[in-house]
């Protein structure tokens, strides 16, 4: 199986500690080089933070797992240097078709709002994502990536952790000030620390098959409720890269996974679905069940949990890796400020609070999709089928059809890091909002607002003509760069260049004005993870300082 | 006023950032209302629900249109 992809084998190197060398003590150790551990490591390295990354394997994710990567994850991947490769290799799609029994009941077009850099979603096999991340991790410098290093013991101390690590050459110990736990859904470290994760298992099984075919299927997502070729169950078809199609068959709880996986049982299902004799090749088959659950707290002293180790969702709506990458996005700048002594440890509690909030939203949305797709009682099924029956003709019913909602970032409206509004604004860019993209023109930077934002606090100050900005304001804006937590000021303007070479971006299409409800004087404070921290109708340096202090728990 | 068949759910005072949220809020509440009921009890809950909502709508011409659509193709 798997003829289209050759798994890389990463080189194991004998750790220096086994020969009495090496430091033994590190500021940050990350366990798990899945997508989330890798993203965390790269982001920290980009901030100039050296990290050790341990993984018990020596290759990427095996078989068919994550498929869909959403806009927000792609934006984070852009920031850490992998977005372009993902989008180039991935399959972009906009049209989703929903069938009920024999008929197509409706289709939707994700067709994103114009003037965003990244699409709503791309499809790509998870092993590519990991391969690109590993390549980037090797290129960025400062990451001591250790394959075949299995963490078998962990001890919490007041101001750090001690790890016991096994390798093909023997075991050794490492100490870290901070441990990032990214060891996946089964999280051995979570168990070693005796921590709970609570939630529920869904009583259903799904068969996933990756099939290679030169099909003339359009690049669309097809979802069937109760199709004639697989009665009473659902089926999902997605196109991935390399002409690989991913098919998910709902099997029900009674199904025998071992039987179902046998090619002689899988192939007839696929033939029935394709409805003709077109040739295909089976690349991968597995049967999975899933759970929706999360840890109560993502921070336990010096251990910070990210990705599947901290939370798991059903795959409907593709929120696993997508949300884990956003964990990294949220955690890294905070951890860096704490390590550098620029913020107190409490800032890391806000990592937990914000990402718990996001995890709850993800669990809620994917549970709702699951409940719609696999109704749990006769009355739920009646309602579900009634919605599907009405969907063909009535818009309200189409809006209720839930075969998985697009993975979208949370609006962190409850965060203690936000400075509440004192002025009024239209639109959605409230404190805590993930920031909207927009096309810009700017010397020496990407032609997108989000390509300009990130990695540090930034202040966006809007004026019509940047050249008219008074020198007093220019100096006050520039002075923010010398604060303890530095803030980079950026002038956003319809035209002109701000005096004294103050960084200026031109709101080329007027989208920043529109999406952020900007008027002359409007000022936004952006967090290093591209979320709004505060906003005002006029620039006031003291207010900015107070908002930065609040956003860093200082 | 004719029967409104456009998406129409919202909760006063609640801010929605995603178009799918209000409908999904409603649907979850609907399914939760039936949790742990027998089929017979569920049928009774549905009947009571229709009566309550019908009275709230009040306009019999709207109800007539809804009833016609509901019967079509069943
Ligand atoms: C069928 C299916 C479909 C999915 N579809 C999607 C999708 O469309 N979109 C999406 O975003 N997500 C999807 N997901 C979820 C996605 O695969 C996971 O959320 C994602 O892999 C989580 O990444 P992670 O880095 O947290 O953990 P993992 O990818 O599980 O990585 C954990 C790593 O830790 C290592 N490790 C574990 N224990 C130790 C130890 N003791 N010492 C050292 N190393 C250790 C493992 O070898 C592994 O490399 C899907 C999942 C499934 C099963």
From TrEMBL, chain A:
Coiled coil: none
InterPro entries cross-referenced by the UniProt entry: FAD-bd, FAD/NAD-bd_sf, RIFMO-like
Cofactor(s) required for function per UniProt: FAD
Keyword Glycoprotein set for record: no
Domain spans labelled FAD-binding: 27-365
Highest taxon of source: Bacteria
Pfam families (UniProt xref): FAD_binding_3
GO molecular function: FAD binding; oxidoreductase activity, acting on paired donors, with incorporation or reduction of molecular oxygen, NAD(P)H as one donor, and incorporation of one atom of oxygen
Keyword annotations: FAD, Flavoprotein
Protein name: FAD-dependent oxidoreductase
Species assigned in the record: Azoarcus taiwanensis
UniProtKB/TrEMBL annotation, chain B:
InterPro entries (alphabetical): DUF2783
Pfam family, one: DUF2783
The organism's place on the tree of life at top rank: Bacteria
Protein name: DUF2783 domain-containing protein
């Amino acid at each position: 199986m798997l003829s289209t992809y050759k798994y890389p084998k990463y080189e194991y190197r004998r750790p220096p500690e086994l020969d009495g060398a090496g430091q033994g003590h590190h500021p940050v150790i990350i366990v798990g080089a899945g997508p989330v551990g890798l993203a965390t490591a790269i982001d920290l390295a980009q901030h100039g933070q050296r990290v050790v990354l341990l993984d018990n394997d020596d290759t990427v994710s095996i078989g068919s797992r994550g498929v869909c990567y959403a806009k927000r994850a792609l934006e984070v991947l852009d920031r850490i240097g992998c977005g372009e490769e993902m989008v180039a290799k991935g399959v972009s799609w906009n049209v989703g078709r929903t069938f009920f029994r024999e008929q197509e009941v409706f289709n939707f077009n994700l067709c994103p709002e114009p003037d965003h850099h990244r699409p709503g979603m791309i499809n790509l096999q998870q092993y590519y994502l990991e391969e690109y991340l590993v390549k980037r991790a090797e290129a960025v410098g400062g990451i001591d990536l250790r394959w075949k290093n299995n963490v078998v013991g962990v001890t919490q101390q007041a101001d750090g952790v001690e790890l016991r690590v096994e390798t093909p050459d023997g075991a050794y110990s490492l100490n870290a000030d901070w441990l990032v736990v990214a060891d996946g859904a089964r999280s051995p470290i979570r168990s070693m620390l005796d921590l709970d994760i609570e939630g529920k298992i869904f009583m259903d099984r799904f068969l996933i098959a990756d099939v290679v075919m030169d099909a003339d299927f359009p690049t669309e997502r097809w979802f069937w409720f109760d199709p004639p070729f697989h009665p009473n169950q659902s089926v999902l078809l997605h196109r991935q890269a390399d002409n690989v199609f991913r098919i998910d068959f709902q099997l029900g709880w009674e199904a025998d996974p071992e039987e179902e996986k046998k090619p002689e049982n899988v192939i007839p299902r696929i033939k029935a679905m394709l409805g003709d004799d077109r040739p295909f090749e089976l690349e991968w088959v597995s049967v999975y069940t899933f759970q929706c659950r999360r840890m109560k707290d993502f921070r336990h002293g010096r251990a910070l949990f990210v990705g599947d180790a901290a939370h798991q969702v059903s795959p409907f709506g593709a929120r696993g890796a997508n949300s884990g990458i956003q964990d990294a996005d949220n955690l890294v700048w905070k951890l860096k400020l704490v390590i550098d002594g620029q913020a107190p440890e409490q800032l890391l509690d806000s990592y937990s609070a914000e990402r718990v909030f996001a995890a709850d939203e993800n669990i809620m949305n994917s549970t709702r999709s699951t409940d719609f797709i696999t109704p749990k009682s006769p009355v739920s099924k009646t309602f579900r089928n009634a919605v599907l029956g009405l969907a063909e003709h009535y818009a309200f019913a189409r809006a209720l059809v839930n075969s998985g909602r697009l993975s979208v970032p949370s609006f962190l409206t409850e965060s203690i890091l936000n400075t509440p509004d004192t002025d009024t604004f239209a639109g959605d860019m409230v404190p805590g909002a993930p920031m909207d993209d927009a096309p810009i023109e700017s010397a020496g930077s990407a032609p997108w607002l989000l390509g300009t934002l990130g990695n540090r606090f930034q202040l966006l100050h809007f004026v019509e003509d940047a050249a008219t900005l008074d020198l007093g304001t220019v100096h006050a804006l520039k002075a923010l760069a010398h604060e303890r937590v530095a803030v980079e000021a950026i002038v956003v303007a319809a035209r002109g260049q701000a005096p004294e070479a103050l960084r200026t971006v031109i709101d080329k299409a007027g989208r920043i004005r529109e999406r952020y409800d900007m008027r002359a004087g409007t000022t936004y404070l952006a967090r290093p993870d591209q979320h709004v921290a505060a906003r005002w109708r006029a620039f006031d340096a003291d207010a900015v300082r107070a908002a930065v202090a609040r956003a860093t728990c200082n | 006023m004719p029967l409104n068949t456009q998406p129409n759910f919202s909760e006063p005072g609640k801010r929605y950032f995603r178009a799918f949220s209000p409908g999904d809020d409603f649907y979850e509440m609907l399914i939760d209302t039936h949790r742990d009921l027998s089929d017979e009890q569920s049928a009774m809950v549905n009947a009571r629900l229709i009566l309550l909502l019908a009275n709230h709508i009040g306009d019999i011409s709207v109800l007539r249109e809804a009833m016609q659509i509901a019967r079509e193709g069943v």
